[in-house]
Design brief:
Elements (H helix, E strand, L loop, with lengths): L7 H46 L4 H11 L1 H48 L1
Length: 118
């Protein structure tokens, strides 16, 4: 029965690739978070401006303001969703790195057993 052996170099190269991917995702997250903050501030300003320019009863002004600023609100929510999605990718990559570390430990243990057995 053929064995699916793990090569120490393959494990190391995989961990290095995962590490580079983690760095790239972390760097990209910076921009996504900045965009989310800017989108939220744009929405807040648009809401305040629309609310102050609308007339009528307070509840009518609030509802009209929501209508007037729906595109900014959507842009804000989408930006926040992109940040959350990117964080999930980072969490998934962390799990993959942990799996790689476990594989590395397995390779080391197997190597030690082979040395002792000789």
């Amino acid at each position: 029965m053929p064995r699916n052996e793990l090569d120490p170099n393959q494990v190391m190269l995989n961990l290095l690739a995962l590490s580079r991917s983690m760095q790239q995702l972390s760097d990209e997250l910076d921009d996504l978070e900045k965009n989310a903050v800017e989108a939220k501030e744009e929405y807040t300003l648009a809401y305040a401006t629309a609310f102050l320019s609308n007339s009528g009863a307070v509840e009518v002004r609030k509802q009209q303001t929501l209508l007037d600023t729906s595109e900014k609100r959507l842009a804000t929510e989408l930006a926040e969703t992109l940040v959350k999605a990117h964080k999930r990718k980072i969490d998934t990559l962390r799990v993959r790195i942990d799996v790689g570390r476990s594989a590395a430990a397995l390779v080391r243990a197997e190597s030690e057993l082979l040395r002792v057995g000789r």
